[in-house]
């Protein structure tokens, strides 16, 4: 029996798939896409890319949202191409790629922003010392009314323990010292506003003040005492003994002495003054029974008025660490001042200042 080859002339071939007639072998490989010629991969990719762009415009896609995938078939089939166009929505395939770069930039920029902030803070730190060096002067803020710590001499020039210590600071910086006398309650605001570089005015280091300014020290350990001519006040062992409206006490306005007397003697009659001399004079004139102030001021009052009849209470009623107030957020200036105080203490310069102005050496240990 003769074997008949399918596709021979005169022999009917079985129907092709999808109901289409297969073309003769001689016609195979010819398709509308390239006229029967075998095209290179680059040529087909370019042709299909152009068609993809045109088709994408109709679908309102951008050309970058499509991906050309090579057809495994080596020859074009009728109605097909060596390259198949597959549509990938941008938000599913390509958006991830495009988002990587912005996210990477964001990750890189965040640390850079932190470094920039740190650089700004570092530039701000130490500005006080820079300003002092540039203008050639150290501006001191002090009350000038708290002898022997800060007072005015016969010529009206500021002097005292605190002023002399500030003068030593200026000498070490190799600049001149300019002293501004400011009422005690306004010293911290003046420091915060930049009117002065440093405040040295027998100022006690307290948590409330430390929230507004930096403090270095203490350079002097002090406490409260009472200047009085009243024997009953001087001999009082408990606050209840003098906590009556008949007891009239005076204190420096805005000082820790005012806070202390209001706390310990809430029922007493309390007066406030702007300077220590006015308070001492009230006690001398019997307008007040006593004045509550710091220990060095009590010593100075007794020395200045030996015939006033003072019978003072010399026991330290409180612990008063006296320090130097500096601008907040200036670590370099704080560090410089700490080293300056250590040098003064190590060379016994503080002791010499104490003997000159207080009649005795100072105590810095807490």
Description:
The strands form four sheets. The protein has a five-stranded mixed β-sheet with strand order 6-3-7-13-8. A four-stranded mixed β-sheet has the order 9-12-10-11, sandwiched between helices. It is α/β, with parallel strands linked by helices. Among the domains are: 126-220 and 324-358, Periplasmic binding protein-like II (D-Maltodextrin-Binding Protein, domain 2), CATH 3.40.190.10; 224-318, Periplasmic binding protein-like II (D-Maltodextrin-Binding Protein, domain 2), CATH 3.40.190.10. It has twelve helices and 13 strands. It has helices at 41-58, 95-124, 127-135, 161-173, 187-192, 207-210, 231-235, 256-264, 276-284, 295-304, 331-346, 349-357; strands at residues 66-70, 83-87, 137-142, 151-152, 158-159, 176-181, 198-204, 214-222, 224-228, 248-252, 269-273, 290-294, 320-326. The chain is 38% helix and 19% strand.
The number of helical segments is 12
* Helix fraction by DSSP (H/I, runs of at least 4): 25-40%
Distance between the termini: 126 Å
Beta strand count: 13
Q: So what's the overall shape?
A: elongated
**Binned strand content:** 15-25%
Output the CATH class name of the domain at 126-220 and 324-358.
Answer: Alpha Beta
The helix-strand sequence is HEEHHEEEHEHEHEEHEHEHEHEHH
Low-confidence stretches: 30-34, 60-78, 80-95, 115-125
Please state how the strands of the largest beta sheet are arranged side by side: 6-3-7-13-8
The SS-based structural class is alpha/beta
CATH fold group of the domain at 126-220 and 324-358:
D-Maltodextrin-Binding Protein, domain 2
What's the gyration radius in Å? 46 Å
- Give the CATH H-level superfamily of the domain at 126-220 and 324-358: Periplasmic binding protein-like II
Largest sheet: 5 strands, mixed
CATH architecture of the domain at 126-220 and 324-358: 3-Layer(aba) Sandwich
Mean pLDDT: 76
């Amino acid at each position: 029996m003769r074997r008949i080859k399918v596709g021979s002339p005169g022999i009917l071939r079985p129907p092709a798939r999808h109901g289409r007639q297969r073309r003769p072998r001689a016609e195979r490989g010819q398709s509308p896409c390239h006229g029967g010629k075998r095209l290179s991969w680059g040529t087909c990719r370019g042709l299909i890319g152009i068609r993809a762009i045109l088709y994408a415009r109709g679908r309102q896609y951008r050309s970058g949202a499509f991906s050309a995938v090579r057809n495994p078939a080596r020859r074009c089939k009728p109605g097909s191409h060596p390259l198949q166009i597959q549509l990938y929505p941008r938000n599913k395939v390509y958006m991830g790629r495009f988002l990587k770069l912005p996210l990477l930039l964001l990750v890189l920029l965040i640390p850079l922003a932190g470094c920039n902030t740190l650089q700004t803070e570092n530039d701000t730190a130490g500005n006080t010392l820079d300003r002092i060096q540039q203008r050639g002067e150290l501006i001191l803020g002090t009350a000038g009314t708290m002898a022997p710590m800060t007072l005015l001499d016969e010529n009206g020039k500021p002097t005292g323990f605190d002023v002399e210590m500030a003068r030593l600071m200026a000498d070490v910086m190799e600049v001149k010292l300019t002293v501004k006398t400011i009422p005690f309650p306004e010293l911290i605001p003046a420091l915060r506003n930049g009117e002065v570089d440093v405040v040295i005015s027998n100022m006690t280091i307290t948590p409330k003040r430390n929230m507004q300014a930096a403090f270095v020290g203490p350079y002097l350990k002090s406490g409260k005492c009472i200047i009085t001519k009243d024997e009953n006040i001087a001999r009082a062992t408990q606050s209840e003994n003098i906590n009556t409206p008949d007891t009239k006490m005076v204190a420096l306005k805005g000082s820790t002495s005012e806070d202390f007397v209001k706390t310990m003697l809430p029922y007493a009659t309390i007066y406030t003054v702007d300077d220590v001399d006015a308070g001492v004079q009230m006690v001398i004139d019997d307008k007040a029974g006593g004045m509550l102030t710091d220990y060095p001021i009590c010593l100075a009052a007794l020395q200045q008025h030996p015939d006033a009849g003072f019978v003072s209470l010399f026991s330290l009623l409180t612990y008063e660490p006296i320090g130097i107030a500096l601008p907040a957020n200036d670590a370099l200036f704080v560090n410089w001042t700490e080293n300056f105080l250590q040098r003064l203490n190590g060379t016994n310069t503080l002791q010499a200042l104490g003997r000159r102005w207080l009649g005795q050496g100072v105590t810095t240990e807490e």
